[in-house]
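Why does residue order matter? Because the sequence determines the fold. Keep that principle in mind as you read this record.
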Amino acid sequence: MIALLRKRRETRGMTQIQLAEKLNISQAVVSKIETCERRLDLIELIDVCDAMNVSIVEFFNELNNKL
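Structure:
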């Protein structure tokens, strides 16, 4: 799931800093999420998807297809 989130961020040409700014968190937190040092709850996942303009349903469908 985290690899897909990172791929989505990179595909959109968004840096960790830009994502962090949209989420009102530090870049270090985004980095920890992407290296699996910090877990996301569902609400945070929805917020991350929203910040990247990705539908949570679309995200889960893509994740499901990869599993």
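The chain has a mean pLDDT of 96.
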